[in-house]
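Researcher: Structure for this, please.
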Amino acid sequence: MSPAELAFAVLLLLLTPGPTNSLVLLAGAERGWVGAMRLIPAELAGYFLTVLPLTLVGAAVLADHDGLRTGVTLAAAAWVAVLAVKLWQMPSAAACGQSVGARSLFVTTALNPKALIFGLVLLPSDDRLALNLALFAGLVVGVAALWAAVGAVLHRGGAGQPRALFVLRRLASVWLAAISVLLIARGVGA
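Model: Predicted structure, token format:
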């Protein structure tokens, strides 16, 4: 896969709405663009925690342990479900606070099923691994900036008001719950 093809594949997958993007969008709506961008190192660390080992030895390990991929998928589903419940249960009065922190973004990203695809399929290379990882990191930052900007626009458009943030959190909660259900179905082979 050429660097241009890799960039296109990674970009398409990163742009897909998922748990990490939902949290970055919500952070942008709560904190504004600059505040959300301060969380991006946590997202990068989460991705690299999963992607690096998978890229270096993941295919061999998963080939020898069939249940491991299922276990990772179900763990991701459980974490996303926990996030959905936490967002749903936040009271309206807490709407002025910030529901997305570096820790939740880090864990969510480390368990993001997209990391499996990046680490096992797209990034491994015998001759261009460093280039692939640098390209991946740059695209992660760029896409996170885009999702944070969308959240910041929502913030400026009135989504920063307590009631609007409450509704946005509820919508994010429903979206995360749907992702969790899909991951559970994938994990059990449905």
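Researcher: Any notable elements?
Model: DSSP finds eight helices and no strands in the chain. Residues 3-187 form one domain.
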